Structure formats: structure tokens, C-alpha cells
């Protein structure tokens, strides 16, 4: 149990800064021996609780544009709902190949776009187009979450930064609100279905809160110098996990 709590805390730290905490938390829950539905249920609960605290911290520090985050969150529900229907029609291998193409592209953008580590660029979100961009990000990120899942927060941060000109701190804050909405939607589903083992999920959630607070604190304090390398680490971890599955 101590190992699980420590891993969920680490997952919260990573997730609060750069997304992708599920890559750490899910294997930890599996190692405890929980059935897969309970693994997902417990992970969603601890993730949602932790993300609540990190989202609040970003908002308190002015690193989150509430209306933009809410617009993206609303659109993500539609994208996720549609993707959940599409995923039933696609073979698992096709989804993994899609991700295999996306990961190097995302890593290349992070490595080559020096403006990602620069200041906020509000000119990219002037006028009414701002809301269409936010909705488009939410729709496609929600679709990705429904189709594939891992690394959703990382891709959301990248989208807010590249397409809307937010600095990495604010992009991370907006991504938290998007993730928060989808997390609680999943939690409601899992709780209603009785797929949360509270004796495991609640203690882990406490450590997740600590991780999220520490991770969001580092992201707010260090900004791009901390978030950018963390995003690359998440993408590398996701790529390694994907390659291992493809060639297992």
C-alpha cells in the first residue's frame, strides 16, 4: 500500500506539471492486484481529487483563463462521446499506430519551437476566434482521450500553447480545467457502477493531492524551464510503453 501511495503521489507531481500521470499511476494500481475496472475507477478518483487542488492553485495564481478552460472542457465532452463510438470500430493496433505517429511529432514541436518557452502571445487569441480555437482544442483533445487516453494532459498543454499562444504556465492551467471536467465525468460513471475500491483509492488520493500541490507549485515557480523537460519525459515514457506493447 505504501508503494502504491508513493507512486500515486509521483503521478500527481508529474500530472500537475506536464500531464501523463496515468502512465505511472495505472501500473501502480495494477501491481496491487485490483481488477482492471477497479484500477481505472480508483485511478480516476485519485486523479480527479488531485487535479481539483492543482487546478485551484493555477487559478489562484492567475495561470488559468477560466472561460477558455470551460469552453474547452465543454467541447471535450462531445469529442470524447463521439470518439467512444468510433473506438469500437477500430482495431487496437490502428490506435497504437496513430499514437506512434503523433509522439515524435509532438516531441519535435517541443524541441524545435523555441517560442514555447517564451512569453505569452495574446495576439494568437484575439477576437471571436478565441472561442472557436478553445472549443476545437477541447473537441480534439476529448476525442484523443476517448480514442487512446494516455498523455491527454500533455497534448492539451501543447495545443493551448501552440494554437492559442499561452505560455506554458497558463497552458498547463487551462489543460487542468479541461482534464478536471473529463475526470469527474468518469468518476461519476465509475462510482455509479460500483467500480471504486475506497479503502485503496482514498489513501492514494491523499498522496495524489500532495503530489499535485508540489507539481503545480514547481510549474508555477519555474515555468517553462520545468514544464518543457517534464513534457518531453512524459512523451518518452509514453513512447517506451507503446513500443513495449507493440513488440510484446
TrEMBL record:
Transmembrane segments: 64-88, 94-113, 134-166, 186-214, 226-247
Record keywords: Cell membrane, Membrane, Transmembrane, Transmembrane helix, Transport
UniProt keyword annotation of Transmembrane helix present: yes
Localization in the cell: Cell membrane
Record-level GO cellular component terms: plasma membrane
Membrane topology: Multi-pass membrane protein
InterPro entries for this protein: TM_pro_TauE-like (IPR002781), TSUP (IPR052017)
One Pfam assignment: TauE
Source taxon at top rank: Bacteria
Family to which this protein belongs: Belongs to the 4-toluene sulfonate uptake permease (TSUP) (TC 2.A.102) family.
Protein name: Probable membrane transporter protein
